[in-house]
Amino acid sequence: MTKRLKMPFGALKKRYFFAMLATAPLALFAMPAPAQAPELASFKKVDAGQWEIRPRAKNGEVRRICVRDIRQLLNLRHQGENCKKPFVIEDKPNTVTVSYSCGARGHGRTTLRAEGADLLQINTQGIANGSPFSFAAEGRRVGSC
Question: pTM for the whole thing?
Answer without folding.
Answer: 0.66
